[in-house]
């Protein structure tokens, strides 16, 4: 099943709608969706290394725009939608600590957590809830999300053929590793957010 899904994503990467799917996932991941855009960016870039920078730009722009939705949820709808989403991911007890951290370290919180596997929606919703400066939120989101997606694009662009061969030979192990990193990010967010 895993091989079929991987092959389908690789084949899907050649379709004109693939960048739209990447944009949709990156947008949604920054506000409400639990799956990171890496699950599309990686195979799409491996299938088309010549489009690595384009895919990184699409993921960055969509992620920042989705981050604005997350910010709005935190600023305008925290008591209903925002609290529900934070509680859904098990971070409800950490929001007050996270909010207090913004008073002193808001810029570092956004920059560092935007690079990690910690779901970015936690940063965006809490930024709105903490009333973090919107201009700086956007600037820092562009920097951190751009760095994340462009670093990934650079690695895949330069090591694409060997990375693709490695992934295809060890797809189960790579998937397990990716899931492990994701779980570590979620656990880290729960304990250190």
Order of helices and strands: HHHHHHHHH
Give the N-terminus to C-terminus distance in angstroms: 35 Å
What is the average per-residue confidence, as pLDDT, rounded to a whole number? 81
> Rounded to an integer, what's the Rg over CA atoms?
17 Å
The residue fraction in helices comes out at over 70%
| Low-pLDDT residue spans | none
Describe the structure.
This protein is mostly helical. It has one domain (20-29, 43-192). Helix content is 81%, strand content 0%. The protein is built from 9 helices and no strands. The chain has helices spanning 2-12, 18-29, 38-47, 52-76, 78-88, 95-113, 120-129, 134-169, 171-192. The longest helix is centred in the last third of the chain and has 36 residues, at 134-169. The model has no long low-confidence stretch (mean pLDDT 81).
């Amino acid at each position: 099943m895993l091989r079929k899904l991987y092959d389908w994503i690789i084949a899907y990467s050649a379709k004109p709608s693939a960048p739209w799917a990447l944009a949709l996932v990156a947008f949604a991941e920054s506000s409400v969706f639990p799956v990171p855009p890496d699950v599309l960016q990686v195979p799409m870039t491996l299938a088309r290394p010549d489009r690595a920078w384009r895919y990184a730009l699409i993921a960055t722009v969509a992620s920042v725009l989705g981050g604005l939705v997350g910010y709005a949820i935190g600023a305008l709808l925290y008591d209903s939608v925002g609290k529900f989403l934070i509680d859904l991911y098990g971070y409800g007890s950490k929001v007050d600590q996270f909010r207090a951290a913004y008073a002193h370290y808001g810029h570092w919180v956004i920059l560092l957590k935007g690079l990690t596997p910690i779901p970015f929606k936690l940063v965006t919703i809490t930024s709105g809830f903490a009333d973090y400066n919107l201009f700086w939120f956007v600037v820092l989101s562009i920097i951190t999300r751009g760095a994340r997606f462009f670093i990934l694009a650079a690695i895949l662009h330069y090591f694409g053929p060997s990375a693709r061969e490695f992934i295809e030979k060890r797809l189960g192990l790579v998937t397990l590793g990716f899931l492990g990193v994701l779980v570590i990010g979620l656990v880290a967010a729960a304990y250190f957010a």
